[in-house]
Amino acid sequence: MQTSISQTFLTNPHIEDAESILRSCVHCGFCTATCPTYQLLGDELDGPRGRIYLIKQVLEGNEMSHKTQSHLDRCLTCRSCETTCPSGVRYGRLVEIGREIVDQHVPRNMVQRVTRKLLRTIIPYPARFAFIYKTGLLFRPLLPESLKRKLPLPQSSTAMIVETKARKMLVLQGCVQSVTTPQTNQAATRILQKLDIELIAAPQAGCCGAVSHHLSAQEEGLDFMRRNIDAWWPHIEQDAEAIVITASGCGSVVKEYAELLKHDVDYADKAKRVSELAKDVSEILHGEDLTALVIKQPELKVAFHSPCTLQHGQKVTGVVEQILQKAGFTLTQVEDSHLCCGSAGTYSILQPELSQQLLNNKLSALHKEQPDVIVTANIGCQMHMASKAQAPVKHWLELLDESAA
Fold it and tell me: Domains along the chain?
């Protein structure tokens, strides 16, 4: 694809990346076949190829409008198109650059500005989120059933005895996950301790930066990333083997720290090392001898939803399924398993109508073989699906932990 970038954007530090990505696209349209929003809306501009053209027009100095902004907003950034693309177009990176530029030139209305600011002010801060969440729970009995299901009851957690092990790995605690489903990281801790691995949480580490990053507050997102690097670095210098991440949405972002901070002279090298060490917990377990877990024979039919951030963002496919099958679980076949459930970070809040359509389609596919339980690998997907699912929805680590002697 030929480009002629406007002089207006030549000083943008990301323009070189954007132009390179644009030029890698050969307009084949394979991406439209696997794009969830294109399947729902049937509009070329609500598919990857159309959005690429929109961003190209913007960067070449053509007029941008609220319509341009809406088409970019409706993108889930699920990156299914990247998995499909034969040319390796880094669409996810391009749409982030395009959104930020459009948001700088097309003012949002008051409701949108306030909503996005609240999301960035609350979600990345567990103490703030916990206050809002617990306040909501007080009024939960008064809410209609549809809203009750969107405000899940806190999951029970147990006291943890952390054992000192020779092998040590860092763990990202997460924002929403640390408040609503703390049992996920507790399950990870118990499982890895049986494999003689100690998980260490760096107290000063916080949000991975995803919320700000995906809401066009790029510098704010980078500050979260720098804070995490500073918190993790002393442990990395003491030979921590990996940074274990149990929420695939966070993992997808942490693995991109190197790319996102490559122009920061103070953090580029450290960010590269952090991205190298970042591992989804399934990648860790896949490389270990799991016979030490002594799995009790489970008689459960399990439907696994692979989050977009795991299969398309991190390109980790089939690993969780292999672990669960080796543990003795029976996995169901899930049609269109490449498609998004509609959670997509803050998407379920900002685009509720499309999000609910995608959720209904996903749950229909997951329930088709009547599983006893639905499991996934990301807190956003877990909460989103649990709001309507007929079967219980858990993190897959919980299942493994419950079945381990």
Answer: 7-105 (1.10.1060.10), 113-148 (no CATH), 167-285 (3.40.50), 293-403 (3.40.50.1860)
